[in-house]
């Protein structure tokens, strides 16, 4: 269930069915394996650089200027998108959209699969989305799409993403960008 | 006293802020002689609690009253009596959603009156603590010990820990805040004890000094934004999402429920650390007779174990310290040599027996006996447990 591809009809969580939990401090989770953070960073960069319509989904924690950290992260995420040749589609709030979401320009935790289907996204990064809403969305994406999900989290990480790195603040994001640049060079992208 | 008096080093009542590890494992302790209600006051005193809401019902009334004294003494930020238990639990939710470390206590019929709130608590991912002093819920009305009410709480999405004695109640109710507030957990926690047997019984207990306390709760290390009526996204957060189910997918509701259960599972590594294991075992490691219990039934099972030892019969007691999350792996490991598993309980329905049987289904050859079951205030003498052993195994009593 923790692997790529539509997992099941229902958004079954890997915490229950695969006994996978968030990675311990200083580590990352790559599918079912706990790995060093750099290993996960390289893999996230590789998948983003080699997948169709790779997209970053920035959430409210980096879309609004709550504090200096949020501002720094927002700037870094723009750079990250450029390095990864990725689009950006915001999850700017968590409200259900009425009468229906404009899947071309936004993603929403209530039906994240619609945005992924509509834009044919094969790899994505969640960043700056509050953990609960990210987790709700990630389970549904795993259940219903073949999109590779990565979560860059400022807190404890997300086991329902296929790759997750935790405790990611501005300095760690800058490191990820440097690693992504190296991977991009290696891939000749 | 005011939250404005908080500094980096001290809370508003002047207590030095320390880590949970220091408070639980490193700080020097002194011996005291206290009831469960009194020791809960001591625990809450050391937890930098922002808010507590109370309502009287036996046997938790004294504990609620004593937390009120903490407010009068300047240790608890806010304290008031709700309209009834439903009101209390709703008000607890309001306090917690606003970013307050919040605690309440209840028992028996109070739990049932408040029932709708518990899955709402977990659905809104608030890390509040309910200290449950279990009592009977039947008619004719009883105020006596009986933990049937815990069975109603099992699937609410709240964590449930069970303390055997006064010491465990003290340590657990401190650890409970810390684990519940972990960002990847962040669900409510119910710390249960058997009413009267623990709440009203005076025991020796080792306590650290009362001039130290936990760091305050940080609502910004939360999986949801705390309430903020001015800034997006706080101002329009929960109500539309949760209430307008016609605008969101059914899969969201399914995923949301799974996420709450996942959060409970994520508490396991933290609970293993702060409780020093999800289960505690006593007795002969290779015993074929194993008692699996929680709360004060464990104490009685240990008495039965001692009596069996006098007869040269090996036995072991496995105390479950967490019920949600259920310690499947630990239970399987602890019962791997068992031929007979007895589940003594203080209720008539055998909810723990059902949990144990389901957890071990297809994984053990042992015969599981869900007895003795006593309820309504009956005590559980060791003889009642021994009788089940002699009737269901081939060992002989004296």
- Report the helical percentage of chain A: 40-55%
Query: How many H/I helices of chain B?
Result: 15
- Unreliable stretches covering 5 or more consecutive residues of chain A: none
Count up the domains of chain A: 1
Helical content class of chain B? 25-40%
Round the mean pLDDT of chain B to the nearest integer and report it.
Answer: 93
Strand content of chain B is 15-25%
How far apart the termini of chain B lie comes to 63 Å
**CATH fold-level topology of the largest domain in chain B:** Rossmann fold
The main sheet of chain B comes to: 7 strands, mixed
Structural class of chain A: alpha/beta
CATH superfamily of the largest domain in chain B: Thiamin diphosphate (ThDP)-binding fold, Pyr/PP domains
Percentage of residues in DSSP E strands of chain A? 5-15%
Task: Name the overall outline of chain B.
Answer: globular
Largest interface: A-B, 39 and 34 residues
**In the CATH hierarchy, what is the class of the largest domain in chain B?**
Alpha Beta
> CATH architecture of chain A, please?
3-Layer(aba) Sandwich
Give the number of domains of chain B: 2
Number of beta strands of chain B: 16
**Number of continuous helical runs of chain A:** 7
Walkthrough of the structure:
The complex is a heterodimer of chains A (189) and B (398). Chain A is of the alpha/beta class and 189 residues long. Chain A has a single domain (33-187), classed as 3-Layer(aba) Sandwich (Rossmann fold), CATH 3.40.50.12640. In chain A, 41% of the residues lie in helices and 14% in strands. Chain A contains 7 helices and 7 strands. Chain A has helices spanning 14-17, 37-50, 60-63, 68-83, 112-119, 131-144, 170-187; strands spanning 27-30, 33-36, 55-58, 87-88, 123-127, 148-152, 163-165. Chain A has a 7-stranded mixed β-sheet, sandwiched between helices. In chain A, helix 6 links the parallel strand 5 and strand 6. The longest helix of chain A is centred in the last third of the chain and has 18 residues, at 170-187. Chain A is globular. Chain A starts with 13 loop residues before the first helix and ends with a helix. In chain A, 52% of the residues are buried. The model of chain A has no long low-confidence stretch (mean pLDDT 93). Chain B is α/β, with parallel strands linked by helices and 398 residues long. Chain B has 2 domains: 3-214, Thiamin diphosphate (ThDP)-binding fold, Pyr/PP domains (Rossmann fold, 3-Layer(aba) Sandwich), CATH 3.40.50; 279-392, Rossmann fold. Chain B has helices at 20-26, 36-45, 61-73, 85-97, 108-113, 117-123, 148-153, 166-180, 238-243, 250-266, 268-274, 296-310, 328-334, 351-360, 382-392, and strands at residues 16-18, 29-34, 51-54, 78-81, 102-106, 129-134, 159-162, 189-194, 203-208, 212-214, 279-283, 289-293, 315-320, 322-324, 340-342, 367-369. In chain B, the strands form 4 sheets. A 7-stranded mixed β-sheet of chain B has the order 4-3-5-6-8-7-14, sandwiched between helices. In chain B, strand 12, helix 12 and strand 13 (315-320) form a beta-alpha-beta unit. The longest helix of chain B has 17 residues, at 250-266. The model of chain B is unreliable at 230-237 (pLDDT under 50). Chain A binds chain B through residues 10-13, 15-16, 21-22, 24, 60, 64, 66, 92-98, 109-111, 113, 130-133, 135-137, 139-140, 143-144, 155-157, 159-160, and chain B through 125, 182-184, 186, 221-225, 231-233, 236-237, 240-241, 244, 247-249, 251-252, 254-256, 258-259, 261-262, 265-266, 268-269.
């Amino acid at each position: 269930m923790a692997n790529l591809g539509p997992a099941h009809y229902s958004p079954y969580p890997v915490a229950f069915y695969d006994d996978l939990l968030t990675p311990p401090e200083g580590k990352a989770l790559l599918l079912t394996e706990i790995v060093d953070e750099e290993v996960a960073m390289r893999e996230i960069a590789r998948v983003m650089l080699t997948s169709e319509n790779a997209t970053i989904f920035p959430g409210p924690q980096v879309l609004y200027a709550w504090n200096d950290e949020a501002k720094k992260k927002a700037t870094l995420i723009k750079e990250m998108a450029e390095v990864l040749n990725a689009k950006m589609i915001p999850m700017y709030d968590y409200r259900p959209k009425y009468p229906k979401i404009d899947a071309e320009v936004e993603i929403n935790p209530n039906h994240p699969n619609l945005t992924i289907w509509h834009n044919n996204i094969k790899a994505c990064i969640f960043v700056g989305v509050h953990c609960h809403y990210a987790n709700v969305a990630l389970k549904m994406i795993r259940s219903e799409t073949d999109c590779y999900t990565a979560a860059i989290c400022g807190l404890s990480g997300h086991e329902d993403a296929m790759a997750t790195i935790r405790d990611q603040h501005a300095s760690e994001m800058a490191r990820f960008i440097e690693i992504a640049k190296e991977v991009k060079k290696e891939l000749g992208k | 006293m005011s939250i404005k008096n908080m500094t980096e080093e001290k809370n508003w009542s002047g207590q030095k802020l320390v880590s949970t590890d220091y408070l639980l494992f490193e700080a020097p302790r002194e011996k005291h002689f206290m009831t469960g209600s009194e020791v809960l006051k001591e625990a809450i005193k050391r937890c930098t609690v922002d808010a507590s809401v109370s309502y009287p019902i036996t046997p938790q009334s004294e504990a609620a009253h004593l937390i009120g004294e903490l407010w009068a003494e300047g240790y608890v930020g806010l304290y008031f009596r709700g309209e009834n238990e439903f009101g209390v639990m709703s008000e607890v939710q309001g306090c917690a959603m606003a970013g307050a470390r919040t605690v309440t206590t209840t028992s028996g019929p109070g739990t049932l009156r408040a029932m709708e709130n518990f899955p709402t608590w977990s659905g809104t991912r608030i890390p509040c603590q309910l200290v449950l002093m279990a009592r009977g819920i039947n008619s004719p009305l009883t105020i006596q010990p009986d933990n049937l009410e815990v069975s109603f709480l099992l699937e609410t999405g709240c964590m449930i820990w069970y303390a055997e004695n006064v010491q465990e109640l003290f340590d657990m109710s401190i650890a409970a805040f810390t684990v519940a507030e972990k960002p990847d957990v962040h669900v409510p926690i119910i710390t249960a004890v058997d009413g009267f047997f623990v709440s009203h019984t005076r025991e020796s207990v080792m306590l650290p000094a009362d001039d130290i306390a936990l760091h305050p709760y940080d609502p910004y290390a939360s999986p949801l934004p705390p309430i903020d009526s001015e800034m997006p996204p706080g101002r329009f957060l929960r109500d539309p999402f949760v209430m307008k189910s016609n605008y969101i997918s059914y899969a969201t509701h399914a995923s949301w429920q799974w996420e709450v259960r996942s959060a409970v599972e994520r508490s396991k590594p933290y609970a293993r650390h702060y409780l020093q294991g999800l289960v505690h075992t006593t007795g002969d490691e290779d015993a074929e007779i194993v008692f699996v219990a929680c709360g004060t039934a464990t104490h009685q099972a240990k008495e039965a174990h001692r009596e069996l030892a006098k007869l040269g019969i090996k036995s072991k007691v496995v105390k479950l310290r967490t019920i949600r999350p259920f310690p499947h792996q630990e239970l399987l490991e602890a019962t791997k040599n068992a031929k007979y598993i007895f589940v003594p309980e203080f209720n008539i329905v055998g909810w723990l027996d059902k949990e144990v049987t389901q957890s071990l289904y297809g994984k053990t050859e042992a015969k599981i006996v869900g007895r003795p079951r006593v309820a309504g205030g009956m005590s559980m003498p060791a003889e009642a447990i021994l009788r089940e052993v002699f009737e269901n195994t081939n060992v002989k009593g004296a």
